[in-house]
Amino acid sequence: MSESQLWHEVDDYFTDRLLPDAPDDALEAALRDSDAAGLPAIAVSPLQGKLLQLLAQVQGARHILEIGTLGGYSTIWLGRALPADGRLISLEFNPEHAEVATRNIARAGLDKQVEVRVGAALDSLPQLADENPPPFDLVFIDADKVNNPHYMEWALRLTSTGSLIVLDNVVRGGRVADPANTDPDVVGTRAALDLIGSHPRLSGTAIQTVGAKEYDGFALARVLA
Ligand SMILES: C[S@@+](CC[C@H](N)C(=O)[O-])C[C@H]1O[C@@H](n2cnc3c(N)ncnc32)[C@H](O)[C@@H]1O
Questions:
Q1: DSSP 3-state assignment of 139?
Q2: Among 5, 30, 45, 163, which is least packed, fewest CB within 10 Å?
Q3: CATH number, domain with residue 159
């Protein structure tokens, strides 16, 4: 058995035991319809979705910002952590992705709490800031990695003490630590990690993961005073 097969088997094992009722109908349907609409299969895994949900619950999050909606799969996991008066805003560049996500979110019964905004996030974020929203308790960054340092800066602007920022895909098979790799996405992720490590208002870490999403990882950063 290859390493990758083993990672998948262990993910299946954990999913069977820890998420016996999930993915449920709405989550399954979100993946199925995303696939049928030709969206790339790059959503978080069920176990990762549950981690996002748990983080949002630990935060007691009432306001969540997501950058990178795709078909709304991670959005549904996060949206389900919200209290009845909570709100999630998800930013998506591709109108077709946003359309599929909007349908998936409505089927999950989250359309009152979740709003998908279409456009390049670097255009949507200043507009959002102009609205003076309440600080976001959790920001999930999962879009074009080249802009990760900009997304981190915006996340800092739109959060407050105690907020949590989750930055996805920081390992990408180990490319992050390969000095010969100058892919703009990798360079963007390195810059975001440097920002987390050096910013006086951030305390962070990064964790490598293996599983259904192969060898990757995520960074977590808590906003300080
Ligand atoms: C990895 S997928 C998001 C997956 C989703 N968070 C999930 O786990 O279900 C990245 C998404 O970011 C979107 N994206 C790419 N560039 C963007 C940009 N500049 N602004 C907003 N969204 C962007 C892509 O269209 C894609 O749908």
A1: strand
A2: 5
A3: 3.40.50.150
